[in-house]
Amino acid sequence: MGFYVAQFLTGLASAASLFLVASGLSIIFGVTRIVNFAHGSFFMLGAYLAYTIVQVLPHGILGFWGSVVAAALIVGVIGAAIEVLLLRRIYHAPELFQLVATFGVVLVIQDVTLWIWGAEDLVGPRAPGLDGAVRILGEPIPEYDLALIVIGPAVLAGIWLLFNRTRWGTLVRAATQDREMVGALGVNQSWLFTSVFFVGSALAGLGGAIQIPREAVSLLMDLNVIADAFVVTVIGGMGSVAGAFLAAVLIGELNAFGILVFPQITIVLAFLVMAVVLIVRPWGLLGRPEAPQRGAAGPLEAPLRAATGPAMAFAATVLALLAVLPWIADEFTLVLVGDILVFALFAASLHFIMGTGGMVSFGHAAYFGLGAYGAALVVKHLGAGMELGLLMAPVAAGIGALVFGWFCVRLSGVYLAMLTLAAAQIVWSIAFQWQDVTGGDDGLLGIWPAAWAGSKTVYYYLVLVLSAGGIYTLRRIVHAPFGYTLRAGRDSSLRVDAIGIDLRGHQWMAFTIAGVFAGLAGGLYVFSKGSIFPDTLAIPHSVDALIMVLLGGVQTLAGPVVGAVSFTLLEDWITRFDYWRIIFGAIILAICILAPEGIAGFALRLLPGRLTGRVEESAR
Amino acid sequence: MLEVTDLDTFYGRAQILDGVTLRMDGGEVVALLGRNGAGKSTTMKSVMGLVRPARGRVRFLDRDITGRPSHAVCQMGLGYVPEDRRVFTELTVMENLEVGRQAPRDGVPEWTPERLFALFPNLAEMRNRPGGRMSGGEQQMLTIARTLMGNPRLILLDEPSEGLAPVIVEQMAQTIAALKTEGLTVLLSEQNLHFARMVADRAYIIEKGRMRFDGTMAELEANPDIRDAYLAV
């Protein structure tokens, strides 16, 4: 009995920090509609700052808690500064662009932290006065855990008072519903947003700072916590602070007890719970169904046009160049270009559901990885050849997309994105845990092409034909009636339903098609590398694909190809530097601010309309 | 007090306003009449800084406010009541009023919740009711009260009678008359000539983004042709 009580209290204690981070994320999302990837970085900064400040301040109870509060406030100021300098410029950009911009911030903060504090894990002090343990039902419970159990509800109460008993809170709640109207009533939204960012970031900083007696401070804290924070926020309902509390306790307890029953499950448990909650209550436990928000509508998307003569000539020239490449380039270049082609297909498949279908996937790497693992597994365990492997890749990914897609198309917007993330995380953990079949962290090795395709040149041609063919097919689908239906559904789902089209069925099919092509890319990838690891399925790989699509431009069909080219070349070049993340982050931020329509969109704006097939501005 | 000159406003490539010009003196109640889609709401939004006019000038209290952000325009004493009410449905009546509250303004009688409840007795009985659980008429009262909390000198009322029961329309007319006696300047947009007759001193008629008539209500009555051409359905 005592053991279970102790386990229960441990669950509550770990919920406290998670709640602080998630509530900040939820508050920021509620008002600004920004899904802030950098929120985990604020958490990490809170921990590092507290670690440093506690050594400067006099030792003792005041010094410890003083440094926790100081760290939270400094992180709040950093968050507010990022809002003023960066996010304020991109509130009108498409939602996803904001997401990628905040990912740029993640990279920059990573390297700044590395530069200031170094790569070593840092162990913080114990909290003075709370460094012992008390016995409850015979089990020792750390005193600090009990303090955390009190801090969680206390902060919840504080936030409730702030939102319901102050003018600021009233304005924030009003802005959550209709920011334009709040502006028309004389409230300066800019400062309201900045102050919301300050509060949200400070909560993340506080969450990180109170963790220093419990866990070592490390550079991995940011992405570790952000996935959990996303899950908690979504389970609780985006924008609901009480929901975040409930969800944090739920996850904290499930982890505390899940580890007793089936230790391997803890990695995915949170994501499984999220998937179940989203299917039963698509807007989270205490969230509200998402009403179309006023005053934040993005620009209308221009209709896509079929390629014009010059554009087709350009595409033909590029293809011809690619076809003769083996005669003019060395082997290294050939492999690099092969990678680019594979990623272009991967990005194009993501663009197909995002740009055409209006469904944002945070977990597209799952289908790339399913394809890669599907191919590798038939080769490894059934002794099949490359041909069957390459056939298996799109099939495996297609089946995965068919299953997950059925759940995902029931949701929309941020919730859909989160469910795709959960799906990817589940696939990742299966690959990571199922040692006997997938090789776990060691991956699968020795997956090489068949003898006839063994030379770099032949395999390059295979990649070229299948990738270009895949991209061409996707393009055809976009311009077919099926593509019209998807685009119509993206722009107005109600009207599409009203004219008798089963939009959900079409979206499900589109999700599956995107999965199939991502799987094909994955299959091509595994035979070119000869090996496959669970990383291929992980969140950063999904983010890579998002960045490719957004770099190139969501609203242009050429976008994903341009994005894949620039991303792969950039990554190849930049990762040679020590502090490559800060360079990469800065480049992402620069593109977000200077060319929010992506590289291809930016180029289209500069080219005359006649080349690009846009309608000329007609004089009125 | 308000001077709008040659305003052109576009939504994308569609031109909504084409050289809209109007002026108002302090204490007047002016009706902006026109059919659906004529450009009434866009005129108000352009004045308020909610949409950006491509050309033209807006002057308020002898200062140029063209293209200023709407919160700055509002803080100068220009209140806006949107056509679709846009009550904060999750906030109570008192909280809705709080969002609209601004510091008292020189030469303008200060509005408090208590004074507003005297003007809109229905609201007094539902101080703690969320905006989402009110009838259309009650929401219309609340949205006007909310704007008045900013102590405006001039108030833009976008179709205040739209979708209201005849009894409530009658009440609304009395309310506007009461605001006029308080010294408030009012620009209201209307499709309903009958309503405009009850409250307005002067009228403009807008059609396809252009001003077609500018005169007193008496002059409008004397010109049935104009009325039939631009207002009759």
Tell me about this structure:
- The complex is a heterodimer of chains A (620) and B (233).
- Chain A has 620 residues and is mainly alpha-helical.
- Chain A has three domains: 2-219, no CATH class; 352-537, no CATH class; 538-608.
- Helices cover 72% and strands 2% of the residues of chain A.
- Chain A has helices at residues 2-32, 39-56, 61-85, 95-117, 143-164, 167-177, 179-184, 189-209, 221-236, 241-261, 266-280, 309-328, 331-356, 365-382, 386-408, 413-433, 435-438, 456-479, 481-491, 493-498, 503-529, 539-552, 559-574, 580-594, 598-606, 609-612; strands spanning 133-136, 139-142, 444-445, 531-532.
- Chain A has a two-stranded antiparallel sheet.
- In chain A, a hairpin with a 2-residue loop joins β1 (133-136) and β2 (139-142).
- The N and C termini of chain A lie far apart (80 Å).
- With 233 residues, chain B is an alpha/beta fold.
- Chain B has one domain (2-230): Rossmann fold, CATH 3.40.50.300.
- In chain B, the strands form two sheets. Chain B has a six-stranded mixed sheet with strand order 6-7-8-3-9-10, sandwiched between helices. In chain B, strands 2-1-4-5 form a four-stranded antiparallel sheet, covered by helices on one side.
- In chain B, a hairpin with a 2-residue loop joins β9 (202-207) and β10 (210-216).
- Chain B is globular.
- The mean pLDDT of chain B is 92.
- The chains are: A mainly alpha (620), B alpha/beta (233).
- Chain A binds chain B through residues 167, 170-171, 173-174, 176-178, 180-189, 294, 300, 617-618, 620, and chain B through 12-13, 15, 48, 50, 69-72, 74-75, 80, 82, 86, 88-91, 95-96, 98-102, 146-147, 150.
Topology record:
The complex is a heterodimer of chains A (620) and B (233).
Chain A lengths: L1 H31 L6 H18 L4 H25 L9 H23 L15 E4 L2 E4 H22 L2 H11 L1 H6 L4 H21 L11 H16 L4 H21 L4 H15 L28 H20 L2 H26 L8 H18 L3 H23 L4 H21 L1 H4 L5 E2 L10 H24 L1 H11 L1 H6 L4 H27 L1 E2 L6 H14 L6 H16 L5 H15 L3 H9 L2 H4 L8
Antiparallel strand pairs in A: 1-2, 3-4
Chain B lengths: L1 E10 L2 E11 L4 E5 L6 H9 L6 E6 L2 E2 L5 H6 L2 E4 L11 H8 L12 H7 L1 H4 L11 H13 L5 E5 L7 H16 L3 E6 L2 H7 L2 E6 L2 E7 H5 L2 H7 L3
Parallel strand pairs in B: 3-8, 3-9, 6-7, 7-8
Antiparallel strand pairs in B: 1-2, 1-4, 4-5, 9-10
Helix pairs in contact in B: 3-6
